[in-house]
Amino acid sequence: MMRSRGNLTKAAVVTILAGVAFGAGEIRKEFRYSVGPKATVSVTNQYGPVSVRPIAGNQVIVTAVLNSDKVEVDQNQTGNRVNMFSRLLPGADGETGKVEYDLQVPSDANVMLHSNTGPLSAEGLTGEIAMEGTTAAVEVRNVDDAHVHIKTLDGPVTLTNVQKGHVEITSVSGDVNLNQVNGMLVEVNSNSGKIHYDGNFGDNGQYRLMSNTGDIEAFAPDTASIDVSARSIHGQVENDFRLEPEQTTPFLMRAESAFSGTLGKAASSVKLHSFSGKIHLKKRSTKSK
Q1: 121 within some domain
Q2: Residue 164 within any structural domain of the chain
């Protein structure tokens, strides 16, 4: 009971620095929270963008711009967790209920973001990043040694410069673009969206790019070190590399529908699988990067 009371007190001292109307019916609010290491920050926003960037120190600073008085921001802090929630009032719609969130958090913070329309973006973090949206575009860039979990219905997903990552992406129909994404696990599952990878398949990782009907296109340098298998049951596969053949394969090889082999020391495992989409493993000149 003593700990619970302490948490409630800590949440109650959060200060709203500004809550004044500006522009055409817009309202700006700012919240500040003191947190410890590896804090968790959660934002649920029905309509509107959420962006997160790092800040030095032990504070979480949230700026919320409300499109009208038809929506309110509910917030609380319990221990080392900060929660923000956009609450729609009677008569609110996608325009009047829109809230734009800008978050500054310690780089080791864990963030959980949800927005139906988004966009959602995060950069410069090392903690766990979880994002979920419907039509929201999702972008993660310049993160290191982070777990990245993304779920979207048909919003596009773009990851750029994610190093030593643990990446899991699930999309129904949104395209997924991975640029310089490396880690122990990089997994993408898409139903009809296209998957594009441009990197080096590094960090001795496991890379699984899988789509039902969407095409898969992967660029890698000729210095890549991979054990690769590619298969499309009803689609065409192409390969620009001269791979060393494997003695055994996990599936029946058919011309133009599957290939497998190794390149270099085969440090990373790469699987490119689709039911009816096209698959192309392309060689990228090292001089172009």
Answers
A1: no
A2: yes
With respect to residue 149, please indicate whether it lies within any of the assigned structural domains: yes
How many domains, the chain?
1
Neighbours of 80 (CB within 10 A): 18
Give backbone dihedrals phi and psi of 6, rounded to 5 degrees, phi first: -60, -40
For 86-102, how does the pLDDT look when each residue is reduced to its tens digit (9 = 90+)?
999 999 999 999 999 99
Q: Are 39 and 80 in contact (CB under 8 A)?
A: yes
Using the structure block, give the residue that is written with the tokens 């058919």: 254
Identify the domain containing residue 184 by its residue range.
137-289
Domain assignment present for residue 28? The answer is no
User: For residue 256, which phi and psi values (nearest 5 degrees)?
Assistant: 70, 5
Instruction: Look up tokens 């599952």; give the residue.
Output: 189
According to DSSP, the residues that pair with 147 across neighbouring strands are 166
In tens, the pLDDT along 102-128 reads: 999 999 999 999 999 989 999 999 999
Instruction: Note the pLDDT tens digit of each residue in 179-236.
Output: 999 999 999 999 999 999 999 999 999 999 999 999 999 999 999 999 999 999 999 9
For the chain, the first-to-last Cα distance in angstroms comes to: 58
pLDDT at 17 over 50: no
Q: Report CA Rg, the chain.
A: 22
